[in-house]
Amino acid sequence: MNSLQFQDPAIFSAIKRETERQNHNFELIASENFASKAVMEAMGTTLTNKYAEGYPGKRYYGGCEVVDEIEDLARERAKRLYGADWVNVQPHSGATANAAIYLSFMKPGETLLGLDLAHGGHLTHGSPVNFSGIIYHPEFYGVEEATGRIDMNKVREKALKVRPKMISIGASAYPRDFDYAAFRDIANEVGAFLWMDMAHTAGLIAAGVLNDPLPYCDVISTTTHKTLRGPRGGMILIGKDKENSLGYIAPKSGRTKLWSEVLDTSVFPGTQGGPLMHVIAAKAVAFEEALKPSFTDYQKQVIRNASALADVFKEKGYKLVSDGTENHLILVDLRSKGLTGKIAEEALDRASITVNKNMVPFDTESPFVTSGIRIGVPAMTTRGFSEEEFRRVAELIDRVLMSPDNEEIIDMVRGDVRALCNEFPLYESSIAG
Ligand code: DSN
Fold it and tell me: Which residue range(s) make up the domain with 340?
């Protein structure tokens, strides 16, 4: 980073400070992770200069022979990782991957049935402030107040009532796994497409530690930077490719297109222009990492760590949504402790513990205040934390939450956080220049 240091000291110094923040904080945002040096190196390369609209072997620009090779490698590795018939690695993000799915399977005004954002869903699954809820007609299923879990009978009742064109599965704050077979049965019964957005759990699914959506869902979207631990970006997959007969993009020729062809068209030119070839190269690097046995070990540790974290919170009398976890995150309901998510997030921030305030199901607070915090383990597991460290993490969080206004305690916890981080070095200063 020598050039940056001298050419743009302001940006150089900001990156350096962010690297230091990551080095010295407990990063517990459930959607974050630490990409490897190799992944980050691939992103900071000459590939950023290249325009490559189109797909390998069929581009709108010359000079694409090298980037074709890179995109083919990324696609081939992702297909191997998930046992998929087809993938598209060009989506710039999870949200644009999802936009391409809507464009492929839904006409404006048609109904999507998705998990309510206030019950752990995602903005792009029909929220009224997102394109998905503005262009399409959103209907929602939720979790049960008593159990914090999705009741498949209720999903079926709702699907029979609203007759969706597409049903979405997937969440950003749901600590449980999904029953894909039951969702498939419902989709079949009402004649809906079935879409899984596995952004949060893509790494866990790749490693086989959570249920596999590919045999059941018509289409799957994901980000590549959460549990999958790659660069920021998106991807779309199909387990078993089929002929498109209902999609929005009507076949122009007499031949009925495959879903994969429709989806390719929906990514480019449907929703995006040129692909980010430097990011696609980094995705390829991450997929190769994810194919290694050590990645499976990592994901198993993620599950063990989240479970250890949940146990300590429960021992200390916290209420967890769904009473625990079977994935990479816990959702803590702070109402019984007389706290809001906002107060908790801010106090923890001062102690160098990064979490996010989060709505809990049936929350009475606004999304800017909330009654909960979401705590995820993927990043600190990458850093090397195991159950022992996560039990310590839970204890330190509890100390702050018991006295969110006591700056002396917060200072002491910040010191303990730093000491524990120092035992597990993350980035050397070279990353920051
Ligand atoms: N913002 C992401 C998360 O934190 O879950 C989802 O897009």
Answer: 10-27+298-432
